[in-house]
Amino acid sequence: xxxxxxxxxxxxxxxxxxxxxxxxxxxxxxxxxxxxxxxxxxxxxxxxxxxxxxxxxxxxxxxxxxxxxxxxxxxxxxxxxxxxxxxxxxxxxxxxxxxxxxxxxxxxxxxxxxxxxxxxxxxxxxxxxxxxxxxxxxxxxxxxxxxxx
Length: 149
Fold this sequence. Notes:
This protein is α+β, with helices and mostly antiparallel strands. The chain has three helices and ten strands. The strands form three sheets. It has a five-stranded antiparallel sheet, sandwiched between helices.
């Protein structure tokens, strides 16, 4: 899924920005999570399920659509559903990454981004982390330029 005016970027360009993308078998997520945790020295993880017909889940998803960053890397391994990440590059332009089941995305710490859940009612991902407090959302001033839609 890509808009007509979007330009595809290479894996090397993403890595130069500190953004890591990969693929894994969503039927065998544990080995992939364990690899991420071992690489980063993390022990914690959350299994996140969102159903957009649930008002609380819809509110959580809406908060993620506003531009924000975290004190630590945000790593997600997607198991169900789809969505997109907009991530600010070092030159302040956006890079867009479409995600679905079997995709892994790692957004660098202190890098502004926003996440929008795709069409459909359900989203599920595993999020390994080094402490929940490091994933607290730190927002930029919200306006039409920083809001996803």
